[in-house]
User: Which sequence fits this backbone?
């Protein structure tokens, strides 16, 4: 139980990324494409998505672009990497396309002021729980919150030095996303609880932003004592 | 800025621990005493504190025991390691003793049910913010949330493999506690934001409990890309 050998093979899955033209979505798409997965970058603008995909596809990776609804329908797994502002509206409109799929929410509900980042209140408890409430026919998993977009997109960085905390209520789904995280070089997926505990993981991004400011870093996290 | 060399020398400070006879308090006291600090274990019962201190003091370390009020008055830095239930009441009663001091809150407001641990709502936002509200003449810092009590007390463990996230609004106080954390072998203190961002760090303990359950570990955290 919990050993990497037990995790499913996800190499043949198509990964769609809503908000795939933003830094986080683009960076995750790039790394998953390098790992060998087919990737569909979704965006409000199919044209913009196509351009971003063409840029990555030029390197020989299997990346295409589409509007968010087409991308949602095309993916075996769909990663939600949109800004918090607009998160609920986007998912509400894609309920049919996302039905029956694993939806991976990596959105951090944060505000920013002169003091830095802070956690915004979410009526459902967290962005991931909001997604679960809006997508009753999907299986929502929370993951990829702390992966630096800067490092994901940096062509000189071969390995990302971080663990990805994976949360969800369905064991098969969290195992699948744990395996997916592990396909990115350097990253290890670690199961870190049920969806009701997603708020702390999302909110921790504000703490890592404080770390980055103080230490001039692109901080990630490693969980110790897990083999 | 942020380099260990900038941190103050805290080797001569007396560290008092409220709730010093619980596993976390006892374990922190043990490690800080090994590091060379004078430690006062506080407890509701002076007798119980005295016994716990005698057990540690027998190893040659400078540990004494006292009731919580006496311990609070004796410490240069006072660590609060009591259960969440009773946190507010204890601090309310020690306002005078804690005035003018750095108070380090490591309390995690968690509930437990069949599904594991979950975060309890705190009107002030977090245990640390509650402490700050109740102790207006003290400087509250949040730290030591994720350090495994089991490892702290394990005599066969020489180094604790974790970073301690340190939060607070006063730079001198967070530097002091960052330095204090670094005195425990293996541990590194990392500044991780203002007190308003303490809830995510406290709540993350529920995630680490999920990790421990799944992977049979005593998980800690390392922040990557910080030298």
Assistant:
């Amino acid at each position: 139980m919990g050993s990497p050998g037990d995790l499913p093979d996800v190499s043949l899955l198509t990964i769609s990324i809503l908000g795939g033209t933003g830094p986080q979505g683009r960076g995750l798409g790039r790394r998953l494409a390098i790992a060998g997965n087919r990737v569909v970058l979704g965006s409000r603008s199919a044209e913009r998505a196509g351009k971003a995909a063409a840029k990555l596809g030029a390197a020989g990776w299997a990346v295409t672009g589409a509007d968010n609804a087409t991308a949602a329908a095309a993916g075996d797994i769909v990663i939600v990497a949109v800004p918090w502002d607009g998160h609920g509206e986007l998912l509400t409109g894609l309920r049919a396309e996302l039905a029956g799929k694993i939806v991976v929410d990596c959105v951090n509900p944060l505000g920013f002021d002169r003091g830095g980042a802070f956690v915004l209140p979410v009526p459902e408890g967290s962005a991931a729980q909001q997604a679960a409430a809006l997508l009753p026919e999907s299986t929502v998993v929370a993951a990829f919150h702390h992966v630096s977009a800067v490092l994901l997109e940096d062509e000189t960085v071969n390995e990302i030095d971080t663990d990805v905390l994976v949360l969800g209520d369905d064991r098969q789904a969290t195992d699948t996303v744990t395996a997916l995280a592990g396909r990115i070089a350097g990253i290890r997926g670690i199961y870190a609880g049920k969806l009701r505990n997603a708020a702390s993981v999302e909110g921790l991004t504000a703490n890592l932003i404080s770390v980055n400011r103080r230490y001039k870093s692109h901080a990630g996290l490693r969980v110790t004592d897990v083999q």
About this structure: Chain B has a mean pLDDT of 96. Chain B has nine helices and eleven strands.
